[in-house]
Write a structure and sequence with these properties.
467 residues, mainly alpha, disordered N terminus
């Protein structure tokens, strides 16, 4: 039996599941379609299953799916119904070993509950990795944090960039740790640093926030720093192909950010969620999240932050094959970049952004639109100007190799792909690996060429078997 496959009878049959039947009817979803979508969503997130119509019939007769399958079913139906649906809403027994996985998808009104949820999420993440590593990304759960954040935005029109707190040793300490983690993430990838981030957030920073007697300004700064750490934990989880975990950390980060009141950081957290949604096959959600981020950061005094958000909107439009929308978003990103007075005049959360960042994102847009010449120019510039950022180098080399391949320049494509493979050495970044896998999938029409066969053999230890 494949991973997570349902069993009935003594393994959990509880009578007809009318809640699941009602949800299927409302969604207009056939048994075969549900099974196919659950399999497909699981594979995107590294889980293998082989459900079919008979599996759905067992669930409707009361069979309890194993592992993370109830969450996958809920994610599929959430998307079809355009509203969040929890496993319990579908008649499935809650997995009592992992209640935090469901709570962490919710943007809570009570910030003390957010701190408790985040502490439990971090503790479980560190001590019992197998319980959280495969939690699914839930597209339908993106609506709750968007709605709650927009309400906060309306109610807090004056919130903006926070001024430094004079002599606040604890804030300076946390900011020093953030700088160190960001540097490690940029150089070696999220897989190398995520456990350290989560441990520091859970055992050092959250207890600071739970203490009484902290001054209001210092408290806001600490909440903002904690939001940045939680967002970085999400980004590093994303970089490690733990997409559901990334969504949960970013959702909780957004709630902490509201408590701190920093619009620049709020926009960047929404940019991260947009990136996640687009890359997981939800580009329309990616565009919408970017638009919420743009509304958030519009009057924050951060052109670089807005530049990234417009770039994320462009990525979503490109994935939707919307050339006009992509062009408009990239032009808006260029315009914001031109307004920036330099990194020193920007929030610390966005000082790493520059022209070369935008070129790297534009290259991905042009690749997805099939504009090979433009992708070649943008990716080539990114490769030349990001020698110290190995993850970006690896991704941009893969995009450049694809641009060559799209122009039938096989030798150049394969030489660049070999360089991308070399760049991956020592970089623990699943996003970088996925970019090179995307290139490899495009090699199918010429897989009998000797140079392609050599690359396939050499890349197998890093990329796995070609599908």
């Amino acid at each position: 039996m494949t991973n997570g496959q349902a069993r009935s009878g003594r393994d959990g049959s509880r009578g007809a599941n009318s809640a699941l039947a009602a949800a299927l009817k409302e969604a207009g979803c056939s048994y075969a379609s549900l099974a196919h979508r659950v399999n497909e969503l699981g594979r995107r997130q590294g889980l293998e299953s082989n459900y079919d119509k008979a599996s759905v019939t067992r669930w409707l007769h009361g069979g309890q799916p194993r592992g993370t399958t109830p969450e996958l079913i809920a994610a599929v139906l959430s998307q079809r119904l355009s509203r969040p649906v929890a496993p319990a809403d579908l008649g499935f027994v809650a997995d009592r070993q992992r209640p935090v996985a469901a709570r962490a998808l919710v943007y809570s009104d009570d910030v003390s509950e957010t701190l408790h949820t985040l502490a439990e999420l971090g503790s479980t993440d560190i001590s019992r990795r197998s319980m959280l590593g495969s939690v699914p990304f839930v597209a339908g759960a993106l609506m709750n944090p968007q709605r709650e954040w927009l309400l906060w935005l309306v109610e807090n029109q004056e919130a903006g960039r926070l001024e430094p707190v004079s002599g606040a040793g604890r804030v300076e300490q946390v900011h020093a740790a953030i700088t160190m983690f960001d540097e490690m993430d940029n150089r070696f990838g999220g897989g190398q640093v995520r456990a350290s981030i989560v441990l520091y957030l859970s055992t050092e920073v959250i207890p600071m926030l739970q203490q009484r007697g902290t001054g209001q300004q210092e408290r806001r700064q600490l909440f903002t720093a904690a939001a940045k750490l939680a967002a970085t934990a999400g980004w590093s989880s994303y970089d490690n192909a733990e997409y559901g975990l990334a969504q949960r950390y970013m959702t909780q980060a957004l709630r902490l950010c509201a408590e701190g009141g920093d619009r620049v950081l709020g926009g960047q957290i929404l940019a991260g969620l947009s990136h996640l949604a687009t890359n997981l096959g939800q580009p329309q959600a990616g565009v919408e999240l970017a638009r919420v981020g743009i509304a958030t950061a519009r009057h924050s005094g951060s052109p670089l932050g807005l530049m990234r958000l417009h770039a994320m909107a462009a990525r979503g439009h490109a994935a939707l094959n919307d050339a006009a929308g992509t062009t408009a978003a990239l032009r808006a990103a260029d315009a914001e970049l031109a307004k920036s007075q330099g990194a020193d005049q920007e929030s610390p959360w966005v000082r790493y952004l520059d022209h070369h960042y935008l070129q790297a994102e534009a290259a991905l847009c042009f690749r997805d639109l099939g504009n090979a010449a433009a992708a070649e120019r943008a990716a080539g510039e990114s490769v030349r100007n990001n020698a110290d950022r190995r993850r970006r180098q690896a991704i941009s080399r893969s995009v450049l190799a694809t641009a060559y391949l799209q122009q039938d320049r096989l030798d150049e494509a394969m030489g660049t792909a070999e360089e991308a493979l070399d760049t991956l050495s020592g970089v623990h970044s699943e996003r970088s690996v996925q970019a090179l896998r995307d290139f490899r999938r495009r090699l199918v029409p010429c897989r009998d060429e000797p140079v392609v066969r050599r690359f396939e053999q050499r890349s197998r230890p890093v990329l796995g078997m070609a599908v």
